[in-house]
Predict the 3D structure of the following.
Amino acid sequence: MTIHKILPAILLLCTAIIGGCRSVDDDRIPPAPVRIAFPTVAEWQIYGTPGATDHRRFIKSEKIPSNFPWTALTETGFGGVLLCSDIHGAPVAYDLACPVEIRADVRIIVDQEALNAYCPRCHSVYDIFTNYGQPLSGPAAEDGYGLQKYYVGAGAAGEYMVVTRR
């Protein structure tokens, strides 16, 4: 086999490897404690996100949601927590603060019709239901800034579900 025949394949492979190495920075939000506990299945059904593409905002300083059973141990991160269920119904959570703006009071907003979230200030758009906070457009996509992700799973103290910062 001559070099002329394999050179295009090598160039294509190198281009794919280099182009596929762009990473997303999803750790731009300042560290802040996160703990939202759902002790029972019933509380998860009421305050959590039990169905696909459900979402709920938790902001302790503003007591959002107002009827949530807030405790002294509840913490909601830097800008608040966006709790979602992806398109398969699996729970995922993000900090509400836009990673471009890095301000606790500049929070992403869910567009339920488009099935994504956007920043009202920088206009970045994020995929929250299918691609785990990855930027889709705007400054976040240009700079590779994804949403800060939080852990959602069974609680260590026997809670049905808990949101924490790893």
Summary: DSSP finds three helices and eleven strands in the chain.
